[in-house]
């Protein structure tokens, strides 16, 4: 049974979500003190966090930053605001998905299932370590390392890199990446993928590898063995 921490201050909505998720055998935990989300997260050790943006004391973005500094647990944002910048900010902070309020519970459940399946199933494959351009990539630890430095990727960033390396020197279409990451592209902004790829490139830049993820305009992305010129 997966444990989900739901950081939502609307008691009615919290109760509705908890009831729906319980029907799918998810164990849902709430927050008693919105000023100590990290401490409660550490006590529960959930496999997934669903968090509202507008919260008492500190907003969801604040807590996403804090959680990301301590954990790679998948995070899904909820928001009643309709600013595109909210989705961009959430992805830049390392969130795995974003759901606009009001939402259909079927969409929420589908996104939770897709996220849990992606995060906790793909690491069970036999191949746990591979090399690329002299870097050691450990899928289980979500790390990419060279003799000089090691970077830690989020689940989405590692999943994108893994998909690109599985089809190295081939174009992976944007639609294929979106479907693999979020199951249903109709619920995901195309910009969400762009933000995630840009975050991956920025981290790879620390290892001098950002030039080996090539953009094919109007098509998708490709991992190469030769730097893009």
Task: Give a brief description.
The chain has 229 residues and is of the alpha/beta class.
Descriptive report:
It contains 8 helices and 12 strands. With 229 residues, the protein is α/β, with parallel strands linked by helices. Strand 11 (213-216) and strand 12 (220-223) form a beta hairpin. A 5-stranded parallel sheet has the order 2-1-3-4-5, with helices on both faces. It has a 4-stranded antiparallel sheet with strand order 6-7-8-9, with no helix packed on it. The longest helix has 17 residues, at 105-121. It starts with a strand and ends in a 6-residue tail after the last strand. Helix 4 runs parallel beside helix 8 and helix 6 (155-166) crosses helix 8.
Integer-rounded radius of gyration = 18 Å
Strand line-up in the sheet with most strands: 2-1-3-4-5
Largest sheet: 5 strands, parallel
**Structural class of the helices, strands and pairings?**
alpha/beta
List keywords for this structure.
12 strands, alpha/beta, 8 helices, four-stranded antiparallel β-sheet, five-stranded parallel β-sheet, 229 residues
